[in-house]
Amino acid sequence: MRFLAIVAASLLAHAAGAQNAATLYDQAQRLEHGEGVVRDLDQAAALYCRAARLGAPDAQYALGWMYANGRGVGHDDGVAWRLFGLAAEQGNAAGLRMQALLPAAPGAALPACMAPDPALELDLALPLPDYSAATPRLRALVDKLAPEYQIEPALALAVIAVESGFRHTAVSPKDARGLMQLIPATAARFCVLDAFNPEQNLRGGLAYLRWLLARYSGDVTLATAAYNAGEQAVDQYRGVPPYDETRAYVRRIGKLYGKTLHPIAAAVPQRCVRQMAIRSRR
After folding, report:
1. pTM value?
2. Which domains does the chain carry?
3. 163 catalytic per annotation
4. pLDDT tens digits for 179-193?
5. Residues 121, 148, 163, 245: which is the catalytic one?
């Protein structure tokens, strides 16, 4: 029993930092059924709820079952009906069957743990940013290229300022490179052959930023959050991910750019169709 308790403690410590719905769901199942750990219905419900908040239909169903049976949580058929419905909307057949067995309760509140994070508050009443680190040549290049990608130069400059501080040789611990800090996968996606070449890097970063703005309907907060953390993270959390780095990043760009919406292009490619033939000038 002591060994199982130690395993359970380790499992919960790992779960505390987990951001993946599948991982949370797997850990919740083990705690609910006592699979290799001490059974803990309260903690199982808490982990199911975190996974359900991320949109996992199996977790929504499992949490609904717990509410329907009062296991680890107080019995509440209304909450169960809502949770089974969320699972059913994503094709979970068991959720559809279980919801049909309960009285309809569209007004029931979901568990508090499924509430979205509060919206970021951006202080837009700020003086003009100081971009003195940007050389006149770089400013001219941004002013020239940004409109080609339907990006306002002010937003491009804000992203560059936060990403690299206008240093075209910048390299991050995650191997993001150049002015707009392109990781190798993103550079390849937008056909950037030399991420340290200012023009190539700007074209790749602007193409990616344009695509993100189109994906999120011009929402600068979501687009820049995706630029930092990846669109998968934004989609998974249905908003700005709860990462300290990403939330600080979004706030900084919001202060520099001063707008929450950006015009979007009608048709935007997800990746480039030909490689850039730009001579390296390093």
Report:
1. 0.63
2. 2-114 (1.25.40.10), 136-257 (1.10.530.10)
3. yes
4. 999 999 999 999 999
5. 163
